[in-house]
Amino acid sequence: xxxxxxxxxxxxxxxxxxxxxxxxxxxxxxxxxxxxxxxxxxxxxxxxxxxxxxxxxxxxxxxxxxxxxxxxxxxxxxxxxxxxxxxxxxxxxxxxxxxxxxxxxxxxxxxxxxxxxxxxxxxxxxxxxxxxxxxxxxxxxxxxxxxxxxxxxxxxxxxxxxxxxxxxxxxxxxxxxxxxxxxxxxxxxxxxxxxxxxxxxxxxxxxxxxxxxxxxxxxxxxxxxxxxxxxxxxxxxxxxxxxxxxxxxxxxxxxxxxxxxxxxxxxxxxxxxxxxxxxxxxxxxxxxxxxxxxxxxxxxxxxxxxxxxxxxxxxxxxxxxxxxxxxxxxxxxxxxxxxxxxxxxxxxxxxxxxxxxxxxxxxxxxxxxxxxxxxxxxxxxxxxxxxxxxxxxxxxxxxxxxxxxxxxxxxxxxxxxxxxxxxxxxxxxxxxxxxxxxxxxxxxxxxxxxxxxxxxxxxxxxxxxxxxxxxxxxxxxxxxxxxxxxxxxxxxxxxxxxxxxxxxxxxxxxxxxxxxxxxxxxxxxxxxxxxxxxxxxxxxxxxxxxxxxxxxxxxxxxxxxxxxxxxxxxxxxxxxxxxxxxxxxxxxxxxxxxxxxxxxxxxxxxxxxxxxxxxxxxxxxxx
Amino acid sequence: xxxxxxxxxxxxxxxxxxxxxxxxxxxxxxxxxxxxxxxxxxxxxxxxxxxxxxxxxxxxxxxxxxxxxxxxxxxxxxxxxxxxxxxxxxxxxxxxxxxxxxxxxxxxxxxxxxxxxxxxxxxxxxxxxxxxxxxxxxxxxxxxxxxxxxxxxxxxxxxxxxxxxxxxxxxxxxxxxxxxxxxxxxxxxxxxxxxxxxxxxxxxxxxxxxxxxxxxxxxxxxxxxxxxxxxxxxxxxxxxxxxxxxxxxxxxxxxxxxxxxxxxxxxxxxxxxxxxxxxxxxxxxxxxxxxxxxxxxxxxxxxxxxxxxxxxxxxxxxxxxxxxxxxxxxxxxxxxxxxxxxxxxxxx
Lengths: 623, 348
Prior knowledge:
A: Pyruvate-ferredoxin Oxidoreductase, domain 3, Rossmann fold, six-stranded mixed beta sheet, 22 strands, globular, disordered N terminus, B: 2 domains, 11 helices
């Protein structure tokens, strides 16, 4: 590449329009792949595409460089049509080192674009990745894929050789070279990244200059180097008009609580113990003290939930958040909130288990834990968001239900929703349903367990209210008076009353929205973070004329009142889940339908292709 | 929140009597239990605090002691085993206008709830902890507790326990407690005096109450129960007063021999060498916490009382500052802040 060739270069290159593309950036955990992916996502949002992302990183903070388990990646799909998932197979893979190539190559489509940083393919890195010889020298790689060998490290250092930074600092900017190259290939605007650099390094002009130059150098390299024969455009997607922002699930959960605090005019107390992948909810809330969000980083998971319960007893909105292992520890506390009949919101950002499992990987195997994972009859409301942006509404809804029914509400999010982002149509908060908080202050006729006839909720009394001094606790209580009771019939009555109270939350559930025909051969039923994969698969099948519909449950306990009827309108029912069949078991038990599961438990979202195959298989070729 | 804060400030506190703090529930401890005396002392102390009773909350965990809130005509929450300090922390963060008491025992507070006890003490949450120490598990019918002496023979340790006991006051001081005291269920007047001190402390007050379980561990505190023994062995700590104890004809002094405490006949100690109790000195409090018979007396009273930042004051101050500097949060503004982009109707 010579300077003189630059002005003319790029002009003659072929530009192709694409409907969608799936890209993955992969490198060492220290290579800045998450940032690169996030910036590419922002650029694509600017370009007006619909997007879904999948960050994927090791649990180790600084995993040993060059190792297979230290590989970090960020995948996204962007398109001019609705994008439901981060994509199954890759159109383009950027591999910053041999380990990244080894781990991720299998997902690249034959004929896909493969961009590698050649300077990382030295003997040491090849050994660590377990390559006996350099795979880049193997002709089959270039035959199978459109391989582009780029000395990113060398070109990066060259672009900023005159800057007063040490080699290590300079080397660290090479991810922006990769970003520049791929931004050129897919005709992404650089402005958002340049703006980001300006803000991020406002106090460090040398870094700002280095990153800016390297980004532009990568972009220019794409444009001028002879190696890229073509590049692509992806037209803006047809999306509902309005103001958008990128939203991740955990931020949406946090902001949903902020909205609930503002609307209810009641402070939120959030008790949490740091745990992957839930910690960012605590961190996000801690920023927003102006919303009267009070965060307690508790000494353990039990203290986190019980502090929230103490806050609820005091009349605040008590919320705790964790992941499966932490929820297990909170079990006894949740039981206390069940019997004390206090409002409590519990976020479970599910991750792969059992035990510590794979903390940074997603799963949805805590449904049974949410429904039944406590001693005795201990019913709680369980709801689950479908997309990252939906986490906002789900958090708000959880607070609304908890306060209205004086009941614990478990929110089942997952690692994929927590870290994944989507373009999110910003709602007008005024359109959110009201959260009505009515503390009892009236002395006349007061009893701690006197119930509202519609919701069965007992009165919420704030300590400090004169004349209503009373005691509650974990012992069984006589209904109405709240006095300790060991009476057999009363216990049976209270067990049923607590269950009935949760059942009545069904009043809050809107009619189930059906994606597809109201009756037909197959209904696909999903919940939680699999919404995108299922919807993409079902819409493909529909496009081929198959009689398939899908529904996605946001309410898992109680289930929607119209669900039993809907299930019977289809010949077959398929339930894809990232577990060994939990919702499917509930549906079979509850409705006596012969629903079958599709289950993969790999710590990854379900691929829409494989759901597609499961649909075809179940339909048995009759379409 | 503010409504109650304002309300509490506006209304004058009524003149209460002990009776106002007695609930309508039948007290269900075993006849002869030390808890009765503690309950009576607490109820008797309440009117002196000058706090409207609707602003008082008793939080407990599980165990005999934890039935306490049911018998107080205040707000109360009988929670789960060991977790009362965490629940009380959440309550204080939500409602700093309330006066909160935590009632716990040696098992509840130092075994299953030991972790929470550690952290509430180091955070210095503004509340009063009453730890009833009877050195036994009563409600589960007589297993040894974390304060039981080594070799204790109980139902679960027929050949004697193998674990060394924890010293509640040394533990509390080690956790950074800002108020540490000890009193005895059988000494009503002393109990009332120290209860009042504890309840008026700003920060976490930790009060160990030596309590008799007449069913499973009778007379375990006999050294300070039985009249003659009490006179011989109890050292009443009083701020600014020397560490003297024993009957008039056999007064003894606790003095420092280098860096080690020792007991000497008082008459042999010149006034200048007496150890004068200083509640502000946490280091000497730690030494006092370790004193016990037979080599030393049993100190009672206030071991230490110091000022330190209060957890929820700091949290709420951060909130107030954030609001006064930048105004209350507005979700509509937050949603549209930062990177956003518009998709117009024409484009679709």
